């Protein structure tokens, strides 16, 4: 039975199928990342390694920023967990990024003032994505995004 999902933007995305080990032979990055402050840096390096030749410069920049926000949010939501899962793959010529975390709660925009140092992550994801959304998953949720590939 398909899981329910909330979609912001256009498109339909497949459900996350977590696999423990990366596989570069099919243009799909699957990995587990430790729940640490270094997870986003590791994720960006993996993304560059797997998809550098498949993305435009703008697409690569947007993908790295989106990935950073999704991983940081997942790490924050999964404190005490052993790992978060990342799946990035080319679907119909576009990069789909999915990050699993252990919080079942819906991603929410936060109200922040002009001087706040954080709290704008989902706004950034929204602005840099052709589409994004989330859906419940066993033990938590998946937040996904498809980065814009052209300059806005």
Would you write up a description of this structure?
The protein is 28% helix and 30% strand. The chain has 152 residues and is an alpha+beta fold. The protein has a six-stranded antiparallel β-sheet, with helices on one face. The longest helix has 21 residues, at 57-77. It is globular. Residues 1-24 have low confidence and may be disordered.
Unreliable spans are 1-24
Helix content: 25-40%
What structural category do the secondary elements indicate?
Answer: alpha+beta
State the distance separating the first and last CA atoms: 37 Å
Tally of contiguous helical segments: 3
Radius of gyration: 14 Å
Number of strands: 6
Order of helices and strands: EEHHEEHEE
In what order do the strands lie side by side in the largest sheet? 1-5-6-4-3-2
Strand content: 25-35%
What's the pLDDT, averaged over the residues?
A: 79
Largest beta-sheet details:
6 strands, antiparallel
What shape does the CA trace take?
globular
Detail the topology: elements first, then pairings.
Blueprint: E1 6-9, E2 28-34, H1 39-51, H2 57-77, E3 83-91, E4 94-101, H3 121-128, E5 129-137, E6 140-147
Antiparallel strand pairs: 1-5, 2-3, 3-4, 4-6, 5-6
What would you say about this model in short?
The chain has 152 residues and is α+β, with helices and mostly antiparallel strands. It has helices at residues 39-51, 57-77, 121-128; strands at 6-9, 28-34, 83-91, 94-101, 129-137, 140-147. The longest helix has 21 residues, at 57-77.
